[in-house]
Amino acid sequence: MNVPTKIAGRLPLLLHLPFNYRLHLPPSGAVRLATLPTPPRGRRPGPCLSLVAGMAQGPEKNLGGAVKVPAVRPATEAHAEEAIEAIKGGKVIAVPTDTLYGFACDACSSDAVSRIYEIKGRKHTSPLAICVGDVSDIPRYAVTDHLPHGLLDALLPGPVTVILKRGDSSILEKSLNPGLDSIGVRVPDSDFIRVICRGSGSALALTSANLSGQPSSVSINDFEDLWESCANVYDGGILPSGRAGSTIVDLTELGKYRILRIGRLVKEDIECSIHLSKQRWRVGAVPASFMALHGRESGLGSGKAMDFVRISEFQDKGIVNLCIKSVRRKTRTAMVGNVALGSQHPIRIQTITTTDTKDVAATVMRIADMGADIVRITVQGKKEADACFEIKNSLVQKNYNIPLVADIHFAPSVALRVAECFEKIRVNPGNFADRWAQFEKFEYTEDDHQKELEHIEEVFSPLVEKCKKYGRAMRIGTNHGSLSDCIMSYYGDSPRGMVESAFEFARICRKLDYHNSVFSMKASNPVVMVQAYRLLVAEMYVQGWDYPLHLGVTEAGEGEDGRMKSAIGIGTLLQDGLGDTIRVSLTEPPDEEIDPCRRLANLGMRAAELQKGVGEEVDYRGVLHRFRSHSPETFYRSLAAKLVIGMPFKDLATVDSILLRELPPVDDAEARLALKRLIDVSMGVITPLEEQFTKPLPNAMVLVNLKELSSGAFKLLPEGTRLVVSVRGDEPYGELEILKKTDATMLLHNLPITEDKFSRVHAARRLFEYLQENALDFPVIHHLEFPNGTHRDDLFLGAGTNAGALLVDGLGDGVLLEAPDQDFEFLRNTSFNLLQGCRMRNTDNCHNGLHCEWTGRDGGCRFWAVIKRGIAMEQATDALIQLIKRSRPMGGSSHRRVESFKDFVVKLQSIELLVPEIQSMVLRVPPVLLRVCCYGSADDAMALD
């Protein structure tokens, strides 16, 4: 690049000059940047000019003696502090937003506000909008009490300006919009400007960077004649808005809204968000993407974290709810070496090595063969830490740059050592500063708790400072099975305790201005894991934090069981837009984890792109044709029925109903006898309406869709015929009105899993909302149809993600899997694994992974210390209850103990802590049993008792 000598002599260094800019010398002698033609396809212009700090001439030195030119900086977080200082100093800066370039200043400074009017040549009577960092900041400046809860969260952050009444106690400068009792408020979907807002501690007065009446600016070159009026100019490249500003919506009147100007967000988007914010959601439902939850102070201890996530509180407590699509939760970007984590990047795949860390060659070979985005290595002691340097050097020599994560337990000094070579450190808050809970101390006063926090800060701070120094990332990863004594004393081993455990460490990071963090809330129980992550995100929103999440179910198991549990836990959260990196934790070789990881990540990314008990049914079309010529007993066994003298009998592990697309001919006596025997033992047989008309089977349940239901054709069936109604969930509510007049045995929710316009999970939530609003209590079965050729892993993960995301919240009463080319046993086992993983119906021994911090295979359960030996059988129950009373306080101070097991259960119900094992026995009766009681015989009901 040729630069005139006299210009080059005045600039000590030019950095990051992008391909589409060139320097030229205007007549005034000032440095200008001119834009070349459209950049090559696929490339985006970067920062136009960066000058090294500490220039001899200073950033605003007159170059050539004519015009004072401000410093031009890239709009990155690295330069945010400089912008914050300029704002605090009463200066005006130029910044990119999510729509256009704008001029910004402190909205509470009269001089700065006047300066903006002067720069634009604008009348002081013309209104200016303000910009805040978070939606939660808006009530400081404007009146929001009259708005439907969740409305602002549905609209913002984004390209919207909302007009609100100015608050009586508003601290805004009176020169801002004089004579008006309203104010326009923005929360741009731009990390840079939101960081500036938060850091300045004030709202920014914000207006487009152009002279009044002139075209808006989508690049810094569009307003280069106004640079000299700014303290700094921040370049974010060419903005893609097409000169469309924000959409302006007037929300000043109760119950009304007016769209004053259409901008980047169209009318339909605004109306959709406003409509959704008014909806109330059924208890147990899950929002597709939420940013806030109400935190209840239970009174049981000093903690201020969230209790159980109650979706019923959404309408009352200001929860964001976007039911028609999954939207990835917006996060900051965390850098793990050369890999970026966050909502602006693909979901990253992680795994762990199982070779001895000291066996450097094997570890390097394992990493080289994995193909994951990130690899975690357990570092147990100083010898292993020393080996980490050899591992890293070996990888560099072989041209591998995959980021490595050091998994640290019990050893802060080891973490300090390995932070010098690995790109990321994972710390477990439960055992980093101390051992996990040993229950050596049961009572913690406020002073004890404060001393514990001071001890954690003393031990943890050096690692934070080291990570800052070397540019390392950190994962604060809580494990359900390894919480500290102090946390257990206050919260028990609950999701609430998991979140608070992580926040104790996170507050230290923030105090030291360290933000390259990732969080995880792992448990071997998918239900606990899902609740913990939701609480974490809810509390993060309350705090205004936007850190990325790593998802995983600890030691989910092996084979199909492990994959199903991971699909339920990870898949549920991905459907809600949560998660930026994942690991499927299997008790198998690490390379076996990568394929299910990729499949889940793909499901999560696809979900984000889409717009818009009673039993378990397994599809057995053709089963009678296949087996009737051999033996009915084979058919019964395929349904897991018990055989007594050739007759089928049900137990908890038996399929409750079967779906037959085609009934056997009327003259096929053997096949029809086999079906009759199933019906006689209360196993449902479901068949389409047309089949029942042509080949009637007495006492079979008839499957009808809404069109057939509306036609009334089913009325030709014998009186008392039980109906099963098939619904998609995306129908207009008017079409669902027929359900109010229908006495259906159950509903089948069967939106195709391959639907491209509407997410199956969100369609189901919409259906449950309708049923709840209209007091319709039909059992709902999740019917998943998989096309021919579906890989078994895709079927497993798809079932866990699509049905599990609903069942973990109590939405649904069973599952029906339909896959034409899969065998019966596989479908049955998959269905039972799904129900068991969601804690809906246990049919097999569930062995959670064993926790071993020393090997890195960290599951949610572990061997506890032996408390007492040689207990007589008749005394065992009382001894166990006493142990529970001692070691599992239900949150709160140590002075509030549970006096009896009955009180324990009552307390559990009243404060809604999530302890699924107890709930399965005491609080939640499997819906499968309820359904059997409904239409089974009296003997069946007695047997269940």
From TrEMBL:
Coiled-coil blocks: none
Superkingdom classification of source: Eukaryota
Record localization: Cell membrane; Cytoplasm; Mitochondrion
Class of the enzyme per the UniProt entry, highest EC level: transferase
GO terms under biological process: isopentenyl diphosphate biosynthetic process, methylerythritol 4-phosphate pathway; terpenoid biosynthetic process
Listed HAMAP family: IspG (MF_00159)
Similarity section: Belongs to the SUA5 family.
Function: Cytoplasmic and mitochondrial threonylcarbamoyl-AMP synthase required for the formation of a threonylcarbamoyl group on adenosine at position 37 (t(6)A37) in tRNAs that read codons beginning with adenine. Catalyzes the conversion of L-threonine, HCO(3)(-)/CO(2) and ATP to give threonylcarbamoyl-AMP (TC-AMP) as the acyladenylate intermediate, with the release of diphosphate. Participates in t(6)A37 formation in cytoplasmic and mitochondrial tRNAs. May regulate the activity of some transporters.
Protein name: Threonylcarbamoyl-AMP synthase
Organism: Trapa natans
